[in-house]
Design goal:
437 residues, alpha+beta, eight-stranded mixed beta sheet, two-stranded antiparallel sheet, 59% helix
Length: 437
């Protein structure tokens, strides 16, 4: 599934969800995680208030008082603390919506049950010094109606999703209907309460839906932006070393560093000009891509830095952009491995592909110049000498300078070569790298 399609939002108007079930689970986990703190704090406060309101039960007459106290301390309170414990459990995030919905319904049902137990609501209000301007049935019903609506609207703070919000709204309607049945308020109170109930349901449901739509869109945009940034970052890291890319992002401009000790390798395909005259461009490009892709894996394996390809030539270095004590050994291993790797390749006629490799070590300058199509490059006599070692070498051989041979002599087999005339250098004593000791 494409990145943009898996973040597509289906049923945007009524029941939004992501096209990918995996993304939907990921979104809901984040959505629930953000709401978890509010849920925990809310239910901690509710649990304490619920226990503290036992003084309300004390105003009742027997046997309602005993029934109310029993319900409050042995049914309601344990259930609320059970919800609070669930919000701190390992299931708190994945089952948050179910836990919080269960808790809200407990609160709503408990208020209805306690008030229904009261034998004389007006008498209790009078005993607390409160004036109830309504008859007992209306006061009792109004108390339940009001608290059900307050708690239902408060459910938005704990971020119920649209399905749970609709379900909770139906529970509120049911409890209101039971209140009408058991309290039997006057018809005028019922008629006045209905618009408030319907308006509250509409506001809470619309708010839940809007919250889902908005947070999903933000989640989608954030993910697509992160994916785009990740692709740009990967593309940049395919062009520049990670350390150089970070420096360039922090301080755009010319980057230049001097290194006292680096090792450089050049590898070139023997007779490639002849091949380019015989075969189609796509055949040659495919062949080069396969060979150089293997070289990329080799340089990554040993910790060398690919510098660039120039036609059919491949250049890498070690000891840059971060200095390494074993840079010469890294380049030697790369050279030997590349020589072996190329043996599996043939031209379209079945003839083996052969390469020349040259390596040298010494000081160099590395950096990035320019503002468009920039690349990390290497300059200096060390680079030129490594290139001469390759161009003056033989097929299936790794030629190196005396400086390089002196570094590798202890750990690698080396074979001296007669002094050769090197362009721009004159006579030079060079060596063949045979393999590790």
């Amino acid at each position: 599934m494409r990145v943009d399609s898996q973040y597509e939002i289906k049923n945007q108007k009524w029941l939004p969800c992501f096209a990918s079930p995996r993304v939907e689970r990921q979104f809901m986990r984040g959505f629930n995680l953000e709401a978890l703190t509010a849920g925990r704090v809310g239910f901690f406060i509710v649990s304490i208030v619920w226990v503290g309101f036992f003084w309300f039960d004390l105003q009742m007459h027997e046997p309602q008082r005993s029934s109310a106290l029993f319900f409050r301390f042995f049914i309601g309170a344990p259930l609320l603390f059970l919800v609070l414990a669930a919000l701190y459990s390992k299931y708190a995030v994945t089952r948050y919506q179910l836990i919080i919905t269960f808790g809200i319904i407990i609160i709503e049902s408990s208020i209805f049950w306690i008030v229904i137990m009261i034998d004389d609501f007006k008498a209790i209000c009078d005993s607390m010094g409160l004036e109830l301007p309504l008859q007992d049935a209306d006061g009792r019903a109004l108390f339940v109606f009001t608290w059900l609506l307050v708690i239902f609207m408060g459910s938005m703070l704990v971020r119920l999703n649209i399905l749970q919000s609709v379900f909770n709204g139906l529970v509120v309607v049911f409890l209101n209907a039971l209140t009408v049945k058991y309290c039997q308020p006057t018809m005028i109170l019922i008629i006045i309460s209905i618009p408030f109930l319907l308006a509250t349901l509409a506001v809470v449901w619309a708010s839940s839906l809007h919250l889902q739509q908005m947070t999903r869109q933000n989640f989608r945009i954030t993910k697509l932006l992160a994916q785009s940034m990740n692709e740009s970052e990967n593309l940049l890291l395919n062009i520049l070393p990670a350390q150089i890319a970070d420096r360039l992002k922090a301080t755009p401009g010319t980057i230049a560093d001097g290194f006292n000790n680096v090792s450089v390798l050049f590898a070139d395909i023997v007779g490639f000009t002849v091949l380019s005259e015989k075969y189609r461009p796509d055949v040659l490009v495919n062949l080069l891509n396969n060979i150089f892709s293997d070289f990329d894996k080799i340089s990554e394996k040993y910790g060398a830095e690919k510098i660039k390809t120039i036609g059919d030539a491949y250049m890498l270095a070690a000891g840059i952009p971060k200095a390494k004590d074993d840079h010469y050994s890294i380049v030697a291993h790369c050279a030997l491995h590349m020589l072996q790797a190329v043996k599996k390749f043939t031209d379209p006629e079945g003839n083996p592909i052969r390469i020349r490799i040259g390596i040298h070590t010494g000081p160099a300058i590395a950096g990035v110049i320019g503002t468009r199509k920039f690349s990390y490059d290497l300059w200096g006599d060390t680079v030129n000498t490594a290139s001469r070692m390759e161009s003056h070498g033989n097929a299936d051989k790794i030629q190196m300078t005396k400086e390089m041979a002196d570094k590798l002599r202890r750990d690698f087999l080396i074979e001296p070569r007669n002094a050769i005339e090197v362009k721009g250098k004159g006579k030079m004593q060079t060596f063949w790298l045979i393999g590790p000791r």
